[in-house]
Fold these 2 entries.
Entry 1:
Amino acid sequence: MTIKSEGAVKNAAVNRYGWATLFMSLAFIAIQSCIFKIKYAEGSVWRELGKQETVKKDREIQPDRGNIYADDDRLLATSEPLYGVYVDFMADGIEADTLMKYATPLSQALAKKFPDRTAAQYKRIILDGWDLSRKELAEIKRNEKNKSNKKVTVRSRYVRIIRPDISYIELKELQTFPFFNQRSNKSGLFTEEKTMRLKPFGRLAGRTVGSIFKDYNDGGASGLELKYDSILKGIPGVKTRQRVQGRWIDVILKEPTGGMDIKTTLNVDVQDLAEKALYNKLAETKAESGVAIVMEVATGEIKAITNLDRVSEGIYAEGNPNAFSYMSEPGSTFKTVSLMVALEDGIVTPGEEVYVGNGLFEYKGRTIKDHDWRKGQDKGSVTIARGMYSSLNVVIAKMILKGYENNPRKYVQHIHDLGLTKKIEWDVPLKGKEGTSAIRLPDDKGNPWSKTTLPWMSFGYETQVPPIYMLMFYNGIANNGKMIKPFITKSFIKDGKVEKEFETEVINPMLCSEKTLNQVKEILRGVVTDGTGKAVNSEYFPIAGKTGTAMIAARGGYEGYYVSFCGYFPSDNPEYTCFVGIRRPQGIPSGGLMPGAVFKQIAEGIYKKNMVSATVKPIKDTVNSLIPVLKGGSLKNTEIVLKGIKQSASFTGDKSDWVKQSSYADAISLEGTTTVKKGLIPDVTGMGARDAVYLLENAGLRVILAGAGKVKQQSIPGGSALIKGAAIKIELN
């Protein structure tokens, strides 16, 4: 046996140590190389992959959309979060025994709160959802065991429990129900939030306020919602979804900026009054459509603007922007323009006589006819003023031919100088030539004059003047000659602070001389007291204005009539100007009896409203009582009124948001309405039209109104089962 020397052993140990050191050095270099490669060469790739696993980048946070308000800060449009309610029956924490134990009490609670389903139906949905989840889980496990790639369609993770979307308050109440009062991983309860646009007054001023698209994030679709979409929608924020300790959380990178609020000039009460008055007349005359606009004389603020189109027999709804889109010949309301031009140029005086004869006037192969020409009566000569009172086409045509037959451009240029053709930017989005006046000059090559254009233009034909321009012109007369732009948007508001306020825009500082203005005013008053507008005359205050009746051009001829009335009140100290137009009514067309009747109803309604608000006195209902009679309706609004007139009231029964007056012999007693519940037809008898329509339309019904005052009966009794989309007629007395 050979014994190694001490030196040999030492050399062998050194060699082993060297090899170990070399191996460790190489390993260290390799590790360092990998670290360098991962961190620098491939770093961006791995970092991006890591983020994909733990971070979901840059998701938008939708801002709150601004509100739209009436002139007294009542809401016309606002946003409300709503929640779709679902159950994930595959949630890890759901225990079968607990679910079975609470299925019945949960179903009973759901049926009581949301009565469109019975407790038995809710229980069947819950049990079916659970059974489905077990079947789907079993199928998934079988596929895993068999190593099958077959995909299982999972439906039990998104079972809708409640049909309608619910409010936040309803959601918080839902989370107190049996079984749903646990953590979400144990109950499976989850919600899908969406934002809906709510109109507290239903369809009131619907076309003007406008609408948004079905997808809330797409923004405004019509009206003010579209015109000022960029103002209302705000600026989106940015967030990421980050996985932390197994849970996803939102990390806000940029907070959203809510949209501005818009305050309008619209008055809810005047708007409601105008809509009802126009609707009833359209239904009575079976007209095609109509428009009514109320403007404050001194400011140009539009207090009401209603555009109604027939959608079915006897049913009308806000449709086209008729105030701007009636691009048709205005008829006799335009005679006031011709009168002002001729008086200002000294062509005639109000007392000057013009020969009318039997109401027929032949001019260059065409016959100008007065509305009563068929009577064959020879009226001889009448004054210019009388011709306006009686709306005689022959008088106006001869007046304009006298002054401008040899120089028609002077007549038309004077009309342009008034501002009736000025291009104006309106508060609502319009298409094409809507909202503009078309009054062509004699040398217009694109639309040349005929040899009879001048006389026909003088009484409102061969021109296109939409209602908003006629309103603006007549308001200029009422406003002592200063013609101002009608407008709807009052201001933009952010967090209660006015960011931008819109002021009155002057279109023409003086339409004519003071002498001419006074003559025109006197004649317009005479139209109402002693002419075609007699039906508009009021016993409460003086009204001035002009009737209009024009045939509607269609398919190379004329089909139907467009009747209108435009004027102001009180005529001795004008506060409001109003235009009413009705297209294609049935029966004998009359500017005084049709739109004039609507004008009078609106004017007297505003007068009474202003008188009541000025005096704030209770109405005496009986000989022995000074207790006011209240309409049923909103408890909140009733309490505001009672406080304003310093009238106390007691409450009988359970309090609710909607009340009716149960007695008023010696004191006011209010009683809660018990039928204002989900799934039931509200009982609106005794309520005013506005509250009644709000409740019924909010319930999903189509409302047909008849009459005025309080609701005396409804076609479907209160408390009946609700069928959304059904029509209900309410009669008021």
Note: The domain at 633-732 is CATH 3.30.10.20 (Trypsin Inhibitor V; Chain A).
Entry 2:
Amino acid sequence: MARTERRADHGGEKLYALRHSTAHVMAGAVLELFPEAKFGFGPPVADGFYYDFDLPRPLTEEDLPKIEERMRKIVGKDLPFEHKDLSVPEALAFFGERKQDYKVDQIQKLAHEGKDDESDDEVIGGRVSVYQHDGFVDLCRGPHVERTGKIGPFKLLSVAGAYWRGDETKPQLQRIYGTVWPSQKELDAYLEKLKEIERRDHRKLGGPLQLFRIDEEIGSGLVLWLPNGAIVREELENWWRTVHHERGYTLVYTPHIAHEKTYKRSGHLEKYGENMYGPLLLDDSSQGAGGTKSPQRFWIKPMNCPGHIKVFQSRIRSYRELPLRIGELGTVYRYERGGTLHGMLRVRGFTQDDSHIFCSWDQAQEEIGKVFDLAMEFMRIFGYSDPQIYLATRPERRLGTDEMWDKAETALRQALGVREVPYKMDEGGGVFYAPKIDIKMRDAIGREWQGPTIQIDLNLPERFDVTFVNDKGEHERAVMIHRVLFGSLERFVGGLIEHYAGNFPLWLGWEQAAVLPVRDTARVYAEGIAARLREARFRVHLDADGDLRTRIANAQRRRANYTLVVGDKEAVAGTVSVRRRGAGQGDEERGVTLDDLIARLSVERDTKALPADFAPHVSNGTDSLDA
């Protein structure tokens, strides 16, 4: 089984087929080693593949070389991948006889629903597609390489737990991850990259650097911002507010819960209810039969959109007020299955930098363009590179008329066209209520991350009757543009931790300067240095006790941007010795006056310069896996 839609992180058709085929070979090898194994899904994913198994015992890392050895034997046989179609009764009988319960469950679902959007399996003319090699058979629509002998160098990477269909109420399976590449050189490069990814893992850095914590007593998927992480967030929020005030946004606050009728009207309960928390039953002052109070049903908000609409509708709006740009750093809550949670990158409670622009169709293209320009500026500030722009168009299942979709897609296309921005078409990739501009970006080690998105909503303005009075005195339907730049602050900061490997730029640094007197005789001078820096609005840590080498090492461990060492000579001269984070002892600057230092650091902070120990990713022309 595999998704057949092309995704940027799945690679082009050949790489996708290679990974898909290797996944099948791995599943066949596992079935040879564990004949009673039951297998679930096994798709290609970013840079590799996986398969889920129900096995008689837990796997260990020691099992992976044994599975690899069996896989190499299958590859060496150079066997064909053969396709056939089975009727639904034939498929049920085939997998039922082999006690492949998860395949039976999938076929029954397909027979009932016709198609499974999660896997792309479907029933066509009462038949399902299967592929086989060397006796291993699975539901599958392909594609595959022609023969097992065409499979390139591979490596099994890890074992993890995964619930069947991602539902924690269903059986937990064992997921084996692997990777495969056309050449050994590419495989070796990828394995080196994995080591760097592990070094940068935000979950490993978050605790030691006092950035964040997930506490199971508080709840899975709920982030505790620790002191240093809170500083990073505060600086990001303050800058975000400044940027938006400068660009004419009205910043608002909306409640964390809302009455059920709001989410019925918005369509969230119908389309998104399984991802919402609630209902909360709250007493109302109205009296029911027999004098009892009638409870009102409230839901915790999953999105900020309805609140912003109500802000817009707080009074009748004139065309002279448009465009009206409403923004909020609004915390929302969404139910995510336990198996999908991942540090700060996938959580259940998060703060979105939601903004909604209400305008006329005549203004839509210009407003979209301004948002796009701001999004590109955001990426530049943080050192992300190689933006990939996608225009996602109408999906098969959608709301709104073709005329409305035409207007929305045209406005997005023209905003990109005016700027002569190269972009790729993502046909059918829009959400059910909106086409969108999707921006993806690469971090310092070349990984692609989801960046800002810009959407034209064709659903909520209709449902909430969002209008303004035009120049003819008539009520006209407003255009509603959704956009996020950070997206989720939690996910954005989690990504930044990995992007910077914990070495944040000066403006975001929690310890911008560590001041270390060589000995007690220089302590008073060091205290004066610290006081001057604090007056200049720098975050300073004075560390005066203990061995100097240990204190220097501790400052580096805390990721202080600059370590300032002062002794009696510096006290007499009125100078400091400056060591930039990551620099060696021989790179220490001596004899720097405090005025010069403050001037230099102020420029670095205020311009939001990237730190000297940050190396941005440089595209080598082969980053795009679609190439």
Note: The first strand starts at residue 38 and ends at 39.
